[in-house]
């Protein structure tokens, strides 16, 4: 979790009224407003060097509204570990991320790619309503029938159009899952990537898998690991679903167990000051050329390469139903280079690096894994039609661009007046 930075003032909100008060103050005084939930922004948007920082972690109440329907109201200041633990006694779970300490708001507003994404879709696909405070200080409860454009923009558009204080979510009837990991020899990476890709294409939708290649570090040798989650406690079904993964390389480790879903979420923090260069692409077709380009990055400098399987339920939602438009993505390709505190962050744009050779196979990027927030980076997230619609919603609800310390989509300019 990152530090606060050095803002001029911090508001620790406990209610939507606290949020509204902070918004009124920032708007009326022209103060820069930064909103912080879990504090995990790779692009450092959870910290501020000036202005007002609005910390919403106090908005962390989690209430089961209708157990039979799985309807849950989640404060956006809660963490996903808190959510998983609170819902476990009810036999419910929400697929959202893979780290317990990540905040609900920061992850969910960008989409939310979790360990059951192929069975239950993105986190936003379970959202049926929200409470949001807009730039005018008004507390609104929105859903498909009330402020539908705003509701559309909240699901995938980040924090551009307001401060979301709670989400109404239809949780899945999941108590326990089968979770496992396969470790492979690292001399066979080209075949490993292709084998994982081929398995993904014929995979059971109940299975979500992630292939991670990590370089040698002072803490250990290089590793090639596929972690996987089968969204039911069915060991026989899980074993059948992952059987093909055992043949894509030389297996040196094979672990699996039925565990409560809450135990799947990791509980780790990035040390303060740790630097990261990160790129990602949402790819409809993991072609051999795309995989080769991704693997080539690891030859230039120590690079972590992660392939996150998508498809399944992600593609069951129309591309224009939410502000996350990449519904045809087969996988997300992520490349990252890390630096310890105080050391220069290694670039992914150096001599010999060619991230564009990977990105050209994608339809855009996932906002949650962007390491910068400039206009070019933000434009890479949204297809043109989605970006234009977000800009129009922004004009309607935040014409002064108060919520600009985000992966910001500025408000669209006013339409030209009709000339007689």
UniProtKB/TrEMBL annotation:
Molecular function as annotated in GO: FAD binding; oxidoreductase activity
UniProt keyword list: FAD, Flavoprotein, Oxidoreductase
Highest taxon above the source species: Bacteria
Keyword Oxidoreductase: yes
Gene3D superfamilies listed in its UniProt record: 3.30.465.10, 3.40.462.20, Uridine Diphospho-n-acetylenolpyruvylglucosamine Reductase, domain 2
Swiss-Prot/TrEMBL cofactor(s): FAD
Residue span(s) of domain FAD-binding PCMH-type: 3-174
Pfam families according to UniProt: BBE, FAD_binding_4
Keyword presence, Membrane: no
Similarity-based family: Belongs to the oxygen-dependent FAD-linked oxidoreductase family.
Protein name: FAD-dependent oxidoreductase
Taxonomic source organism: Mumia zhuanghuii
